[in-house]
Amino acid sequence: MSQDKHANDYSQNAELINKAQNGDKDSMEKAVILNLGLVKSIVPRFLDRGVEYDDLMQIGTLGMIKAIKSYSQGFGTVFSTYAVPLIIGEIRRYLRDDGAIKVSRGVKRLGVHAMKQREKFIKEHDREPKASELAQLCACSVQQVAFALEACYPLHSLSEPVCDKDGACLESVLPDNSDEIQHLCDRISLKDAISCLEETEQKIIYLRYYKDLSQMQTAKILGLSQVKISRSEKKIFEKLKSQLIV
Questions:
Q1: Residue 46 burial class via C-beta count within 10 angstroms: exposed 0-12, middle 13-18, buried 19 and up
Q2: Are 162 and 95 in contact (CB under 8 A)?
Q3: Whole-prediction pTM value?
Q4: d(Cα 74, Cα 10) in Å, to the nearest integer?
Q5: Tens digit of pLDDT for each residue in 148-176?
Q6: What share of the chain is helix, strand, coil (3-state, %, to 5)?
Q7: Cβ contacts of 94 within 8 Å, gap of 6 or more
Q8: Which residue has the higher pLDDT, 194 or 65?
């Protein structure tokens, strides 16, 4: 696509969204059609959940309409970046509340038990348990404990706005290295989760994982001990996991 055509499409999209927000139904329809490729690119990942393609397209389109109604250029991000988490969130809410995903009481009980055993293990051994260790503590298979933990993590909080400065939503999706939209959502989610950390915690993340410094180097820059950095990292990871893991 040439730069001129890209600029024209961007301008057309902005104009249609503006008119749609002012009640122009024709512009709303055109804006949805113009951006429908986003929905089409997201829907395939949910096809194994027992819901038909056409139904998922309709649900995803509802998310698109919500994005059109609520988008603002003041968010400092392009429309597609803003719309993707809302589309995914709409589909996930449907699957959770009305669709084929139902979590049995037995699975919920196992999930709660596994989380308690995990917390107990971390306190005793100062590290995360291996999947096999957690399964042994819960007297079940690795597959059973993994499914129970995944099923019991809350989904709703990850599709809600969490940061005003760029208007993005926190949305966690299954990893797929070949999926560019997945990477986009991951970056948005991680950026917003880090922005909610305390100032010192943000500095630790920046120095350790953006500047690739050692714990000792980071401690020296921040005027802290290496032990303090190590303990802080563990707390930071728990905070991020509580927001990002679904």
A1: buried
A2: no
A3: 0.42
A4: 15
A5: 776 665 444 344 444 444 444 444 333 34
A6: 75, 0, 25
A7: 51, 59
A8: 65
